[in-house]
Amino acid sequence: MSTSLHTEIFNDLLKLAVDSGASDVVVKSNKPGYVRLSGKLKPVDMDPIAGVEAQAFVDDHVPRVFKQIWENEGQIDFAYAAENIGRFRVNAFHQRGTVSIVFRHIKSRIPSFEDLNLNPDPLLHLGQGKDGILLFCGATGMGKSSTMASLLNWINHNFDKHVVTIEDPIEYTFQDDKSVFNQREIGLDVPSFPMAIKSVLRQNPDIILIGEMRDRETFETAISAAETGHLVFSTMHAATVAQSLTRLFEFFPPEQVAQARRQIAGSIRGLICQKLIPALEGGGRVPANEILFADATIKTLILEGQFEKIQSLLESSSDSRTFSFNKDLYRLIKAGKISKADGLRFSPNPQALEMNLKGIFIRT
């Protein structure tokens, strides 16, 4: 099959997805394509995509520097741009001897807080820090990268900063306004993530975006950057603030946990965890957040290893910059943004949320 023909098959599928407002496209060899709309996976009415077509698409479009990885490891991440359609983050992998591909649509316009139905006040407070680590957490597909991009773009329009991003691949492209952005894509602009991490502090950034907090070396670089006066943005796969803190300490061996507590307490600025909840009206999904602003009290609790007290503080804090998922779900239900049933379904503690909706709250 010619390159143009199998590329055309995929481009037609991607165009349908973009026109439909889908966030993702899933392709499994010898099956029709699937699109994810408002969080739900739906089949596309089309002929099955043959395994040779999926294999040929990846072989033709994976960047040359990644070809050896694809051949040796059977899985790869890369970016794909389809003319007049859009740009996509691609993950290709083998399963049962055939190729599967997942595309994530990278929107060309960076969404605003209003577009995302976000409460901007706690985000703006966190984003105006001069240093520290700001982590955006959540499961895959929960919109954490979009929330991070919206805050960075707000900084872009309001402050004169030099922002260096390290991404694999780039998810949003920023147009310089008051700030200057240098965006480095692994494999295209720099050979490897460790190499990009090692050199970033020599590039005179004010803000560093690290696409994902993936290992100890990355996190230690983020700590070093925070300690030397930089603000670091990154993402992490964790569902709640408590789980996010636990994940951070998993980067360190047991004998170094005490030292890690000191480093994390000194460098962390905040944690933003996010879930997407079905909207009550108009379709789509609405973000619910759990946000921790690392003030002196939080830093002390981290330093002393009293993590069990942090969840209670999230529930009971009167500080608008620190709140639990239940407090945000309560706000969304009362505002008519989501249904009570969905709020309870997505709550990490539905019994407590039920009490909140009856007017019963924990107070400090």
TrEMBL record:
<dbReference type="InterPro" id="IPR006321">
    <property type="entry name" value="PilT/PilU"/>
</dbReference>
<comment type="similarity">
    <text>Belongs to the GSP E family.</text>
</comment>
<protein>
    <submittedName>
        <fullName>Twitching motility protein</fullName>
    </submittedName>
</protein>
<dbReference type="InterPro" id="IPR050921">
    <property type="entry name" value="T4SS_GSP_E_ATPase"/>
</dbReference>
<feature type="domain" description="Bacterial type II secretion system protein E">
    <location>
        <begin position="201"/>
        <end position="215"/>
    </location>
</feature>
<dbReference type="InterPro" id="IPR027417">
    <property type="entry name" value="P-loop_NTPase"/>
</dbReference>
<dbReference type="InterPro" id="IPR001482">
    <property type="entry name" value="T2SS/T4SS_dom"/>
</dbReference>
<dbReference type="Pfam" id="PF00437">
    <property type="entry name" value="T2SSE"/>
</dbReference>
<dbReference type="GO" id="GO:0005524">
    <property type="term" value="F:ATP binding"/>
</dbReference>
<dbReference type="GO" id="GO:0016887">
    <property type="term" value="F:ATP hydrolysis activity"/>
</dbReference>
